[in-house]
Each structure stands twice: as structure tokens, then as C-alpha cells.
Amino acid sequence: xxxxxxxxxxxxxxxxxxxxxxxxxxxxxxxxxxxxxxxxxxxxxxxxxxxxxxxxxxxxxxxxxxxxxxxxxxxxxxxxxxxxxxxxxxxxxxxxxxxxxxxxxxxxxxxxxxxxxxxxxxxxxxxxxxxxxxxxxxxxxxxxxxxxxxxxxxxxxxxxxxxxxxxxxxxxxxxxxxxxxxxxxxxxxxxxxxxxxxxxxxxxxxxxxxxxxxxxxxxxxxxxxxxxxxxxxxxxxxxxxxxxxxxxxxxxxxxxxxxxxxxxxxxxxxxxxxxxxxxxxxxxxxxxxxxxxxxxxxxxxxxxxxxxxxxxxxxxxxxxxxxxxxxxxxxxxxxxxxxxxxxxxxxxxxxxxxxxxxxxxxxxxxxxxxxxxxxxxxxxxxxxxxxxxxxxxxxxxxxxxxxxxxxxxxxxxxxxxxxxxxxxxxxxxxxxxxxxxxxxxxxxxxxxxxxxxxxx
Length: 456
Ligand SMILES: [Zn+2]
Hints:
Number of helices: 14
Shape: globular
CATH topology of the largest domain: Rossmann fold
Bound molecules: zinc ion
Strand content: 15-25%
Oligomer: single chain
Strand order of the largest sheet: 8-9-14-13-12-10-11
Distance between the termini: 65 Å
Structural class: alpha/beta
């Protein structure tokens, strides 16, 4: 097999993903990592001290889960409340001096939910990041000669500028950092001018470009010749209806990437993202309410947390850290024939709505709405009259109907939508209809919740 025909980027590690052999390796690495954390990271040392254990007391995965509670963004907020918004002090506490003295590039999350979370890139992390990028991009079919249009936000965005570094040793590709900030018109023009054939950005931006291409370029988005859409930072590519629409409008393969170290495969029916990092991170699920471990087995669902097995290079997923995503895992072999168990993002733990006790995630609602492609534009909002998660039924939705739909069509459409929502999500929403293009289109993250209780 020649260099460009091999199955995996890393022929040594990737065939072993999700095997008992790698599990053994993980336990060895985990013990070393915990000792490192105890020694070098104040935040994590405190967690051992609080639990009254030393790294040596942890000899198994079960010991680990029993001793060290999960942490997440709310714990970071608690630290901020303690040390104030002195980011330098905060990061030294969270990551330790050893890593911070090696800080190379600093990005943050978008801060849509309050204080932006710093996303430091340490020099020691570059190798791992390039390795993970290689594994994912190789599976997606990115090959020498490809031109990648980087359309995530470049300013401070964790998936923006760093990608330029992550791809720097990938053979033969050219990165064109257009950036979400450029706006849809420039993005479309630049992709055409520079013959971009791989788009990377958010699914909502990719969807929006479909609507804009005819007026900006005088042609459908399909004519750009894009072969791969590498999407992340928000759900969408994992929603079957969204994926189908993107694939048919672009004539491209759609891949979902992120929420950990994984990417989806090109099996025609979405199978979730393959977890590609057993050697670099230990993946766990816990019950979102009790925080008790949920065994990784076909179909299991829980709050995802992970631990770095190479802490010198880690950013988040340092030690049982959760990004608040609810995952469902699939451990049976994937029909695509590639290694790695798979995970689907069901929603965010803090996005969960409980409509009369039934858990509903905005991403699931989005999926149903996108299945009416052609009759709905896909744009919608969930209107909340009181702080989530509790929703007194009916759940209120504002939905845009598509061009060409007459007002007399709406009652029938509403009935059909209601039946589908009820059979798939067990909710009967109250719908307010909006004309096409009423709702603001975001080029970064689309805020699906309209919090009416915050306005008055
Ligand atoms: Zn697969």
C-alpha cells in the first residue's frame, strides 16, 4: 500500500482503538498522568486533597471514578469567583506553572454563556494536536493537493487559528483562513477565487451559504466543487436531516468533528463520531444527575467526561473534565469498517429542557425541523417563558416557513409537524409562524433559545 493509499493515518495505533489491549495501556498511562497532575497542577492537586487520596491509591479505573468527582465549567466559575477575573492567575491555578511557562497560543470559547473559557495551546500539545488532526482528516479523505477554506471564527476561536498549526505537517494541503468574520459574501467569493475544495466551519454557516450562493455568485453552492464539509462547534452535521441537505446541496461528503477527539465516518447513515484518541485520553460517561459511572456499552447514554493520558500537552479533558455534552455511545463495530467506538451528541446537559418531565434537547427539535426542508427554511427559535430546564407545556416554537408556502398551507403543515414532534420527541409544541428570513442568521453559533423571561 502506498503512502497515500493506507487505511489509517497511524497504522500502529488506530487498528487497536477500542480493544482490551489499549485499555491496559490506558491504565498504565492514567496512573502516570495522575501522579503528574498531583505534582504540577494546583487545581487538580486540590481535588486529590479534597477526596483524601494520593495518586498511588488509585490502581484501577473503578478506584479513579470512586475517588475523584467530575468537574466542569461550573467548577471553573467557582474558581473565578475565588481568584477573580485575573486570567493569568486563573490559568496558572488550572493548568499549573509547568504548562503555563510553555504557553504558545491562547484562544477561548466564544463566551456565549458568560465568561469566555480560556483555551491555551501549549507547545508540548502541538504534536498531539497534529496527530489527532491527521487521524481525522485522513479518514475524511483529505489528501495532498486539497485546499481547505477555514471558516470558523478566527478571532480567539478554539477551532479557528489553531487549525493552521494542526495542519502544518499534513502533507500537501493548503489552508486558506477566510474566517467567519469575513461574512458570507466574502466567504463565498474567496472560496470560488481560491478554489477551496474542503470547507471547515459551523453547520449553520454551511446551511446559510446555500441560501446566499445564488445571489452572491449567481450559481448554486454545488458549483463551487467542494468535496468535503468538515463541520463542528455546534450540532448539525450529526442531525441526519441537516447532513442530507448539506450533502445534496453541496454535492459533498459531510463530516462531524469535535466534542472530544473524534470525527464521523462516511457511512451513508450517520453512525456518530469515531473516538480516535484512546492512547491520548480516557473517555467516560456518567449519569448527568447522580454523576455515577455509566458503563461504555452499545447504546449507553450519559454525560461525557475525559482525562488526558498525556497531561503535559492537555488543555481541557485534563482530569475527569466534562464539557457538558450528553453522549450516546456505540461499541459494536461500525459498518464503515473503521476502528474506534462511536459517540453521538444527544444535547448539552445545560440545554436540556424538561417538558412535563420529558427530556428534550434543542438539537432534536432542529432535526425534526430540518426534515421539512423545502417547506421550512430551517430557522426557528424555542421561546422560554421561565428559566430552563422546566417547561410548562406547550413548548413554544417560532418557525419560519419557506418561500412559496401560502398561508393557507400552514394549518396542514402545522398538523404534520405536530404529529412528527409528538412521535419522535413526545412533545406537542405551540407554533408561531414567521415569514422566510425573519430570524437573524448567525455566522458563528446560532442561539436557538429566546428567553422571553429576560426581556421584561
Ligand atoms: Zn464508521
